[in-house]
Amino acid sequence: MVTQGRGKLGGHVYSKNRQGAYIRTNAVPSNPQTASQQTIRLFLTQFSQAWSNLSTEQIAGWNDAAKLFVNKNVFGDDVIPSGKNLFTGLNQTLAYSGQATLEDAPTPQTIQPPPFFVIDANPGSIVLKDFNTAEDTTVVFMATPPVSRGTSYVKNRLRVIAADVLSAGEESVDVSSQYEAKFGAVDVGDKVFFAAYSVNSVGQRSVIFKTSNIVQAIV
Hints:
- The chain has three domains: 1-30, no CATH class; 35-96, no CATH class; 118-214, Immunoglobulins (Immunoglobulin-like, Sandwich).
- Helix 2 crosses helix 3.
- The chain has four helices and twelve strands.
- Helix content is 23%, strand content 28%.
- A four-stranded antiparallel beta sheet has the order 9-8-11-12. A three-stranded antiparallel beta sheet has the order 1-2-3, with no helix packed on it. Strands 6-7-10 form a three-stranded antiparallel beta sheet.
């Protein structure tokens, strides 16, 4: 008898979590063709074409470097990317953070932790402040549209709104215009989440720092 399984079979998905093995219906995700989705696809196409234009020596370098960029999958297993996947993944992260494309394979570098911050949110003014950056750090900021007061899980709602280089000792960043361009204006009483992660010069990402606040009235 089969006691455990992982993967898809028919219309079901077999996997496990902390509570043990489980089975669920395989749901086909919607494809709303959002601007973010189209940007990601554009990057994938761009870097796939760029990979084809690399020299034989450069491709060999990326294939060798892939062994140094081991990741963990959702099951905790080590996963070594292909050279092409490493090239595409690092350069996509660099593009999102406004940094230059890499053609030659890098070696892993140190990565600064994400900047811890608090949100000062008022209608027409959203400021992230009290950063803890000790040195210049490239940061990608994410946010959610207003959510209900009881919402705490927003991983699938966070969207990139801006990327910036925080200078050492910088105290605050005003993201009002970037937020409103993405989600529209906020009202008093709205609950909003913001998150941030750091990106180093070779496209490695830090973990994400996330926090929330209730929009206050201007006094």
